[in-house]
Amino acid sequence: MLSQKTKDTLLGPLNANNPVVVQILGICSALAVTVQLKPALVMGIAVTIIVAMSNVIVSLIRNTIPMRVRIIVQLVVVAALVTLVSEVLKAFAYDVAMQLSVYLGLIITNCILMGRLEAFAMTNKPWDSFLDGLGNGLGYAIILVIVALIRELFGAGQLLGIQIIPESWYAANGGWYENCGMMLMPAMALILVGCVIWAHRAYNDKEGK
Amino acid sequence: MDNALNLFVRSIFSDNMIFAYFLGMCSYLAVSKNVKTSAGLGVAVTFVLIVTLPVNYLLQKYVLGPNALVEGLDLSYLSFILFIAVIAAIVQLVEMIVEKFSPSLYASLGIFLPLIAVNCAIMGGSLFMQQRIGLPETDPKAITGFGDAFFYAFGSGIGWLMAIVCLAGIREKMEYNDVPKPLQGLGITFITVGLMAMAFMCFSGLSF
Asked: Considering Cα of A119, then A124, then A126, then A129, what sign does the dihedral take?
């Protein structure tokens, strides 16, 4: 259905060329919003939409942008899209928008966006750029979800706010289990992403041999 | 204004841009390979913060805020676009100045100098400032005047500078360590930063 090139554009960023763990882009928000699964999911979706849309827009106007001011033009396109998304979130999912706080606005300065716009959208056709944006957004979302899953499950015993670890296991109710409070600390996000990079590289090195 | 010293110290230690909010991570991880370059970038980031944050403060206070320009008009939703435009313009200026007066620093910073425009620490500083204006005056985090905004920017910049120089020092030493192969490079750097962040948590609650 898809040609090999489009397939690579779309699926490459999910694993072999992942924007977070391989290219180390967009780390700031990836670390900050992963205490719980829900904001991480919303953030992943928001970034995917914005990368795909801004890629299409910049790709459409790429021949009319003067080289010297291209960064400012790109920033304005992205900032307009982020404003739209944040207004929509404030209207329909107010509590999540508050949880994301400044990190929603910081999508503007997310390096994935600038990286994809510079490296791909400026030189490719709109449809390819759209797929590339979609792939990179999803690659980012996957890492966010993995880290948030671990942190919320072990840090609070919940997923999406629903209790997963049975209440009767807890020490307070006569069981043996205790939540790992360390998972909720900011430092743990860094260490977990470090471990994800470790696992990803170890796996891919083995595949390569 | 009497809150300024408190804001300054807090933004260096307990509200450190890197360790508490993960802002400016991309360039932080990419440039921290040696102490000299990272100190240069740290100074550039501090300078851009000091200039942009007070400008954005005035913008927020007198143009964008509720009832600032015209009674009953709240332009806050334009803040993303205006803040980033101010930042991009000032970074362009800094780039030209550095290129003229210190070509060697310009060469070693390379692509990361124009990328300060999209450094989350700069934009994040402005967005936190926007949030903190709304806080009650008794709150230790509240920014109530131009001086507060300036010292908040200064402290955040110094905090960022300190963090990147520390990490660069550690990474220079780590070159000689025997790290498992898949963990080498970025993996171990992340874990190092995580441990540094944990150490910095002992400053939380610090106040003057």
From this structure: negative
Q: pLDDT tens digits, residue range B13-52? A: 888 888 888 888 878 887 788 888 888 888 888 888 888 8
Q: Domain for residue A2, yes or no? A: no
- Per DSSP, what are the bridge partners of residue A158? A163
- One-letter amino acid at B112 equals F
Q: Cβ contact (<8 Å) for B22 and A80?
A: no
Q: Is the dihedral of CA A44, A46, A47, A48 positive or negative?
A: positive
Q: What is the CA radius of gyration of chain B?
A: 18
Distance CA A71, CA A180 (A): 43
Determine, for residues B194 and A187 on separate chains, whether the beta-carbon distance falls below 8 Å: yes
Mutate to test the interface with A, among B77, B141, B190, B203 (most CBs of A within 10 A): B190
Structural domain tally of chain A? 1
| A6: in domain | no
Two tokens, residue B68: 């600032």
Chain-chain contact of A188 with B189 (C-beta, under 8 angstroms): no
CA quadruple B13, B123, A20, A141: dihedral sign: positive
How many degrees, rounded to 5, is the angle at CA B169 between CA B168 and CA B173?
Answer: 110
Q: Where in the sequence is the domain holding A129, given as residue range(s)? A: 18-208
* Nearest CA-CA partner of B87 in B136, B121, B128, B132: B121
Query: Could you report the per-residue pLDDT of B112-139, keeping only the tens digit for each?
Result: 677 777 778 888 888 888 888 877 777 7
Residue numbers in B near A191 (CB within 8 A): 190-191, 194-195
Q: Kindly state whether residue A4 falls inside one of the protein's structural domains.
A: no
CB pairs under 8 A between A and B: 134
Angle at which helices A186-208 and B186-200 cross, to 10°? 170
Residue A13 in domain? no
pTM for the whole thing?
0.81
Q: Report ipTM for this prediction.
A: 0.75
Task: Provide the 3-class DSSP secondary structure of residue A159.
Answer: strand
